[in-house]
Amino acid sequence: MTALAIENLSHGFGARRALYDVNLSMEPGSFTVLLGPNGAGKTTLVSLVTGLYSAQQGDIRIFGHSIRRDPLPALASLGVVFQMPTLDLDLTVAQNMAYHGALHGLSRREGMERAGKELARLEVSDRQGDKVRALSGGLRRRVEIARALLHRPQFLIVDEATAGLDVAGRQLLLTHVRSLCREGLSVLWATHMLDEVEPADQLVVLHRGSVRWTGEAREFAPGQTLEAAFLQLTRSPS
Ligand SMILES: Nc1ncnc2c1ncn2[C@@H]1O[C@H](COP(=O)(O)OP(=O)(O)OP(=O)(O)O)[C@@H](O)[C@H]1O
């Protein structure tokens, strides 16, 4: 069964078309990079997959469950890190985690246990008692990833989580999330940063609302750099 199956997905805002006839399939345990320049439609796609918007056309299935017909099991298997940070700045890290755990039906004890484990894996457990406002941008992002994993999702979707982070912070997040894939997690990683792509990743290039290329990243630009091939593709007028 595919982790994510998107068929003939189109969506727009008034007269502006944001996605046109997008088809996409992700295998369980794969790390898939959704790569596109600003305005390509990445956040719109993430918003549709996470049920924030209802698609005007097409179908989205997560582990076989249609977001439209079967939203509860579809969304229960999903962990999400949105482009815009969503932690409550005036709550502590532990309180943010507890709130998320309660939303997902975890008991207080289980929520605390899970929070301790995920925060430790991202090396932020020593900041559990701090208000999020007191954390640097990089630490906040780590907490968001830990929070998204709290309810043990099978599928993690991350929208530009490394924006604004330094090189070490980006590396830490990517290395951690890639290691989770080796444990079976499926990941859709939306970014415009070419240096976040590795040859073995599954790559989906989105430009002006349509999928322009899909396959193993190492196959994308044989004989030229990823940058050159990406620029060539995304400079095309349509
Ligand atoms: N709420 C909205 N209302 C109107 N237009 C929107 C809205 N959200 C997105 N758009 C438009 O849809 C298109 C795709 O935007 P989207 O934010 O999905 O792209 P993106 O790839 O995530 O870009 P970025 O990397 O800059 O975040 C753009 O033309 C954008 O202006």
TrEMBL record:
It holds the Pfam family ABC_tran. Belongs to the ABC transporter superfamily. The keyword Endoplasmic reticulum does not apply. InterPro entries: AAA+_ATPase, ABC_transporter-like_ATP-bd, ABC_transporter_ATP-binding, ABC_transprt_ATP-bd_su_PQQ, P-loop_NTPase. It comes from the Bacteria. PANTHER family: ABC TRANSPORTER ATP-BINDING PROTEIN, ABC TRANSPORTER ATP-BINDING PROTEIN NATA. Coiled coil: none annotated. Gene3D superfamilies: P-loop containing nucleotide triphosphate hydrolases. The lineage of its organism: Bacteria, Pseudomonadati, Pseudomonadota, Alphaproteobacteria, Hyphomicrobiales. This is ABC transporter ATP-binding protein. One of its GO terms (molecular function) is ATP binding. Keywords: ATP-binding, Nodulation, Nucleotide-binding, Transport. The keyword tRNA-binding does not apply. Residues 4-233 form the ABC transporter domain.
